[in-house]
Amino acid sequence: MFRTAFQFIRYDKAKSIGALLGIVISLFLIGQQSGIFIFLTNAMSSLVDNTPTDLWVVDNRTTNVNALAQLDVRKLREVASLPGVRAASAVVIAGGSASFPDGTSAGVQIIGSDPATFRAGPTRLVQGTYADLIPDGAMSFDRYDSKALGGAQVGTVFEIGGKRVYLATMTEGLRGFGAVYMYTTLERARRLGNIPASRISAVLVDVQPGANPAQVRDQINRTINGVRAWLPADFSAETKKTVLGSSGIAISFGTLIVFAVVSGFFIIGLTLYSAATDRIRDYGTLKAIGASNGYVARLILLQAALFAAAGFGLGYCFIELFRFGIGKTGALFSFSWLMRAGFFGITLLISMGGAVFAIRRINGVEPASVFRG
To answer: How far apart are alpha carbons 300 and 283 in whole angstroms?
Structure first.
């Protein structure tokens, strides 16, 4: 049957190429939109995901790390005094506008933490050291945000809110959602963001060795009013849920992916239907010499499976090329094995579903019709 299916595919190369292109285009669109969606959702929770800590303690109304309400600094001492807490570190996060000598301006999110530990980051340093962030005015930025900052490099002097600062270190792949992350010391973040000394944005908690972070979280939530402690994974997921729920991002990308699946389904279906119509006498001959409708259906499904395998191979190569190309601009993302399996499953579904049109057409062919003029 494999040989027969392959011969049917080779018979009409134009339609075979059309079916293959339909699969490749549909899969590429699905992979492209999925990749950009993954990048955006990762950016939403980037601050949580790239801060190594056991717990985040924030205002009890906050469900989004990108929109933290301020806390009284005394909450830091309350958290630090609880059993099971090894260390509690204050974080100040403030928005600002950066202005560069060439006229470029950009919205920035200033993230400050104690210079003794830099618990809130930056991580992923590729140029400079933490010691370089201590001198007055020193800030850290990400390599991929250089273009948004007017081509800024380490050493570039600029202003945030009219205050003179400079870029002292550079990270790679530490990007925010809607604003450029700039890391610095706690007090400098306060000064640049006009945050009073009595206020902080969050507390990062390291638990004692052997302590259960979930139990420490519950203890904080029970004993300290006005705050809520989160496990990083939970806070990350809640941040994504909050941002997606308050924007049209999920609907927009979901619609495009559904459109790609539906369009691929009909392209393959119509192409296979047209090919089956052109070969209707051949299928009729098969039935005339004893082939059942089940055999013919399996023959058409095998052709669809061959299209799916070839289309997936080509389509996924284009997806990887797209991922490589866009990764150079800082839009970094990757696909899990589960997602790759999902791509193949969708490809198979599109191909097999499209084959139903052809099967229904061939099932209606009478074997005797091949002997008529």
So the answer is: 10
Helix, strand, coil abundance in the chain, percent, nearest 5: 55, 20, 25
**C-beta neighbour count of 327 within 10 angstroms:** 16
Contact criterion met (CB below 8 Å) for 281 and 366: no
Q: What is the pLDDT of residue 177?
A: 84
Q: Are strands 138-142 and 163-171 parallel, antiparallel or unpaired?
A: parallel
Closest to 239 measured CA to CA, from 301, 177, 331: 177
pLDDT at 214: 96
- The token pair at 312 is 């997936």
Task: Give CA 252 to chain center in angstroms.
Answer: 14
* Cis preceding linkage at 122, omega within 30: yes
Angle in degrees, CA 346, 349, 353, rounded to 5 = 145
Alpha carbons 296 and 220: distance in angstroms, whole number: 67
Structure-token match 């270190």, residue found = 169
Which three-class secondary structure state does DSSP give residue 228?
strand
pLDDT of residue 44: 92
Q: What is the pLDDT of residue 348?
A: 85
Mutual angle of helices 293-327 and 337-363, in 10-degree steps:
150
pLDDT of residue 369: 61
d(CA 222, CA 13): 70
Residue pair 22/190 in contact by the 8 Å Cβ criterion: no
How far, in Å, CA of 55 to CA of 231, rounded?
5
Instruction: For the chain, list residues with pLDDT below 70.
Output: 365-373
Q: DSSP secondary structure string, 137-153? A: TEEEEEGGGTTTTTS--
